[in-house]
Specification:
The complex is a heterodimer of chains A (312) and B (315).
Chain A: H1 11-39, H2 43-46, H3 60-66, E1 67-71, H4 74-79, H5 85-91, E2 95-100, H6 103-134, H7 140-149, H8 155-169, H9 175-199, H10 203-211, H11 216-227, H12 229-245, H13 248-253, H14 261-264, H15 276-297, H16 301-305
Antiparallel strand pairs in A: 1-2
Chain B: H1 2-12, H2 15-22, H3 26-55, H4 75-81, H5 84-115, H6 122-130, H7 137-147, H8 154-163, H9 179-204, H10 208-216, H11 221-249, H12 253-258, H13 270-279, H14 284-314
Helix pairs in contact in B: 1-2, 3-14, 5-9, 5-11, 9-11, 11-14, 13-14
The chains are: A mainly alpha (312), B mainly alpha (315).
Family (chain A): Belongs to the binding-protein-dependent transport system permease family.
Organism (chain A): Tropicimonas isoalkanivorans
Membrane topology (chain A): Multi-pass membrane protein
């Protein structure tokens, strides 16, 4: 009976569990696979019945996503043969490219606001988390709870006064306004997560550094920061994902210059109704980075989504 | 003069302490580090909250900033609490909350229990399962309207394939009876992995020795499950319910993209209703009172729940 353990599931059990979990996983990623696949379908294939599993892939959806088009007469089309591959795709349907669409701009807004607010919230969050972790801050528990409680407000409820505040400060529909807002929303997550990570670094390292003649500040950035690097990186990714996905504030407080991609993608319409391949193409470009980050983050995922309450 | 005294004091003390005297004191550093965060949170959270409370006693309308604002006392609160439409949205929210929590706990725990059978490749499958919850609810919700199309949607096709029904005979987001379930299905699809991950952490925290002891006492598997597995994962499960409960009470983006609150008012959750009052009808004072009522509800329910959670943890 060597090596027998009562807590180790039997082989049969493992097989059944494995098959059930794999089955669930396959069903659950089907909608995501469908988004990616639809992006490479022609409009006709995307709305075919029964739904097409095998199809001739085309970049039509991506071309529609990045350009605006106008219909032209046959004479005009014949007189102006397409120069590039993307012009040819549009040309085949009796259209010519009129110019770039707004998608690129909106995507860049998402990048600017996402990275801007992530940098700020991680910067401020690291400082606050270090202080909460190492010093006697008066009313520490109350302040920490206050930081967390700011997440309980429904965004729409906060949006009313913020809308008024932004209007009177001239921050409506600006990058600065959105960066500030997302920083404030993300700060609670950043402080709580980073405090957990910094708590895990032994105080002895800093004490040794202080005895060696470092100032408190030097000890902070030469000893603590390098130790907390992984924690800071994963906190940053969580903040980035939140800002990237945020919709409620974006749809209420931005309309043009600072509008991010989530409120924009659902409004993509082609000639005659919603252009699903273009929507799917936009969704693919927008969702893929997050999927990659999720896979990179999988070890710290649990910690991030529970504000550090559960650590593996 | 004062500087030189500090220098002299520093020179006569051991070097470590000397540097500390020259550098900023810990207390000063603590304040420098904490105050920007507190200031920003005050400016973007607490100040607006106080402003909302003030507005909630007025008839202010944000689309008419120059109109005269009258103080109306508690009338906004009175009107909200006696409005039957608002009770209907509360019911829709309660229905959504109850069933999403029910399915997510049931499926989420089952999945975690299965993954904890430690079969080969469980890490890979877990990573795949987790993907939906990290994605933008608005973008994904919008795409689900495509999957729910009666004629061409993949969801209707799948259901028709399994049950033999005509895929055009039902519309998940157009039918009054089905729409509340349409949003529950998508939310469950998205957030079940959240519960799974937390439960998995709970299951993995149970030491093997407890099961070994139970085995020595000849406790059946069934009995072990109910007397060891469930009680020991309960605090984790309750934590997952707390997070999901708060998030789904605030639910806006996913449902607004999926159904827009329709058909009729069947999927008008409180956040969607609030958005209409505040940003479409522009009844700012009224909707401020509405927002305060929602906040007090969430905060109250969460505090009671956290007390219960702490009791379970202490056991």
């Amino acid at each position: 009976m060597s090596g027998y353990s009562v807590t180790e599931p039997s082989r049969g059990q493992k097989w059944i569990a494995g098959i059930l979990v794999a089955g669930y996983a396959l069903i659950t990623i089907l909608p995501l696979v469908w988004i990616i696949a639809t992006g490479f379908k022609s409009s006709a294939d995307s709305i075919a019945y029964p739904p097409k599993l095998l199809f001739q892939p085309t970049l039509e959806g991506y071309v529609n996503l990045f350009t605006t088009q106008t219909r032209q007469t046959t004479e005009y089309l014949n007189a102006n043969p397409p120069q590039t591959w993307y012009e040819r795709i549009v040309h085949d349907r009796g259209l010519v490219i009129a110019g770039p669409s707004r998608f690129g701009e909106r995507f860049m807004n998402s990048v600017i606001i996402g990275f801007g607010s992530t940098f700020l919230s991680v910067f401020l969050g690291t400082l606050a988390a270090y202080a909460f972790s190492r010093f006697k801050v008066p009313l520490k528990d109350d302040l920490l709870f206050f930081v967390l409680s700011t997440r309980m407000m429904p965004p729409i409820a906060v949006a009313i006064p913020i809308f008024l505040m932004f209007r009177s400060l001239g921050l409506s529909d600006t990058h600065a306004g959105m960066i500030l807002l997302y920083t404030a929303v993300n700060l609670s997550l950043a402080v709580w997560l980073l405090k957990g990570f910094i708590d895990e670094i032994p105080v002895e390292y800093e004490e040794a550094a202080l005895i060696d003649g470092y100032t408190r500040f030097q000890a902070f950035y030469k000893v603590v920061l390098p130790q907390a690097a992984t924690g800071i990186a994963s906190t940053a990714i969580f903040c980035l994902i939140f800002a990237w996905n945020e919709y409620a504030f974006a749809v209420l407080l931005t309309s043009g210059t600072a509008q991010t991609a989530p409120p924009f993608i659902p409004t993509i319409i082609g000639v005659g109704g919603q252009d699903w391949p273009a929507v799917a193409a936009g969704a693919t470009i927008f969702l893929l980075p997050v999927m990659v980050f999720t896979i990179l983050l999988r070890k710290h995922l649990l910690r991030g989504i529970t504000f550090g309450a559960v650590r593996k | 003069m004062a500087d030189s005294m500090i220098e002299r004091a520093a020179m006569s003390t051991p070097p470590g302490t000397a540097r500390r005297i020259r550098g900023l004191s810990d207390r000063t550093i603590a304040w420098i580090f904490v105050s920007p965060t507190i200031f920003l949170l005050l400016a973007v959270n607490i100040f607006p909250l106080i402003w909302t409370i003030r507005l909630s006693f007025t008839n202010f309308r944000a689309n008419r900033p120059n109109a005269e604002v009258a103080w109306v006392g508690l009338r906004n609160y009175e009107r909200i609490l006696t409005d039957s439409d608002i009770w209907q949205t509360m019911q829709a929210t309660a229905h959504f909350l109850f069933w999403t929590l029910f399915f997510q706990v049931l499926i989420g725990f089952t999945l975690a229990w299965l993954i904890n059978r430690k079969f080969k490749g469980n890490d890979l499958w877990t990573t795949i399962i987790v993907l939906p919850m990290m994605l933008s609810p608005a973008v994904v919700g919008n795409f689900w309207t495509f999957l729910y199309q009666p004629q061409i949607g993949l969801f209707n096709y799948g259901i028709a394939f399994l049950t033999g029904a005509d895929p055009t005979s039902f519309s998940m987001i157009g039918d009054v009876a089905l729409a509340p379930w349409a949003i529950i299905i998508v939310d469950t699809w998205m957030w079940t992995p959240f519960v799974t991950l937390i439960c998995l952490a709970g299951l993995r925290s149970i030491p093997d020795s407890i099961y070994e002891a139970a085995e020595c006492d000849r406790a059946s598997n069934w009995r072990q499950f109910w007397t060891i597995t469930i009680p020991m994962t309960l605090p984790f499960l309750m934590l997952a319910v707390l997070f999901r409960g708060i998030e789904n009470f605030k639910m806006f983006d996913l449902v607004v993209q999926l159904t827009g609150g329709g058909p009729g008012n069947t999927t008008t959750l409180t956040s969607i209703d609030l958005k209409r009052e505040a940003f479409e009808k522009w009844r700012t004072g009224y909707s401020s009172a509405y927002a305060i009522i929602l906040f007090v509800t969430v905060f109250g329910l969460a505090s009671i729940y956290v007390k219960a959670l702490n009791k379970v943890k202490e056991r």
